[in-house]
Amino acid sequence: QQQVKQSPQSLIVQKGGISIINCAYENTAFDYFPWYQQFPGKGPALLIAIRPDVSEKKEGRFTISFNKSAKQFSLHIMDSQPGDSATYFCAASKGNTGKLIFGQGTTLQVKP
Amino acid sequence: GAGVSQSPSNKVTEKGKDVELRCDPISGHTALYWYRQSLGQGLEFLIYFQGNSAPDKSGLPSDRFSAERTGGSVSTLTIQRTQQEDSAVYLCASSTGHANTGELFFGEGSRLTVL
Q1: Which of A2, B13, B59, B90 is most deeply buried (CB count within 10 A of its CB)?
Q2: Alpha-carbon span B4 to B2, nearest angstrom
Q3: Which of B48, B95, B103, B111 best probes binding to A when mutated, by most A CB atoms within 10 angstroms?
């Protein structure tokens, strides 16, 4: 059973635009929500993460918005650049194993 | 090297053959994870090691899949009697194992093609 649902599957944005990727989860025991970025031929790498005690976290052009009551969180990429073109995965985990449950991924293309 | 190392990077095998995939985690990382990424799909959890023990094997798709970790370091994922649906990129990740930071460090993966 898929526990983290991600949308859209693919996204095309013009340079300078805002990219928005959404995720929804089912398990209220999840207590850690990271986003990973993956370039072709590489492994995913941590981009930004949030815990449910805050509603927003910003790091540079990347922002996570978290809605605990709706069990949803999203990634916003401001001033999107062609170098941001990659696949983005949301994830969730609970407890102290570090085991992550990933969404299906979003392929982002930023056009120059 | 400083990162997670996986080998082979590419493996082509015939249906029915056994394959072994190796993962060398970051030195000092006690937690190790195997994930599978199929074309256009997300990352599917397979197994988690803490030290040499595997408290969570819930993602292994069948008894053809097994994994071990020795010396708290290198791990091997073995797939017996490979099937075409086993074709995927197998990703290994490691972490410090400290309470739920969520940061996994991934290798570049082993791409398995079963003909």
Answers
A1: B90
A2: 7
A3: B103
